[in-house]
Amino acid sequence: MSLPASVSSWLLVLLCAASGAYCLVRAGRAGRAARGAAAGEAVMGLGMALMAVPPGTGPWGPPVLLAVFCGTALHALWLLREGAHHAHHLVGSLAMAYMALTMTGGGPAAGHGGGHGAGHGAGPPVLTGALLLYFAGYVLLAGARLVVSGGGAAVAAGGPGGTAAGLATGPPDPALHAGTPLRSAELTRACRLAMAIGTLAMLLAL
């Protein structure tokens, strides 16, 4: 049995808000090198939570959200000078800006509804499909990596007190430095996975 649209929307709000709040806390505790990325992810998560609010329940206008996500995209573009690992954040920001644009009526075939799943306009099918493929692939790969890192934590990191440096589950994430506690590293990956799932759900509602 499927959930009512309002219930699923509020669950999405909760998921994105929790992810954004965790990234905000992480930004306050992170070192200088990782603080910018964590802050960008926090704004991204909280902005996604506002976008997911069902229509008629808040004053969150699509133009404001469009400005927020354009800002996070510029921030991610600036962070790209530190390495290509920020490209995913850039793609996510652009995807959210694209969806906000369709909600403003500025995109092709856009309507006048507000909020996801409430009759708002859809963008170009090719672009929407490409974003769906990207985020579906990211969710699958990131989910598999999280499961593997959790299952092999005790062996790879030398016990419950290990660090992220002890895991050999794929290319190193520069945002998770060698001294990052294992649990914190897993929470960070879970936060990014949650936001990718939220983006995928919003794209499916276009």
From TrEMBL:
Pfam families documented for this protein: DUF5134
InterPro entries reported in the protein's UniProt record: DUF5134
Keywords: Membrane, Transmembrane, Transmembrane helix
Superkingdom classification of source: Bacteria
Residue stretches spanning the membrane: 60-80, 87-106, 126-148
Protein name per the record: DUF5134 domain-containing protein
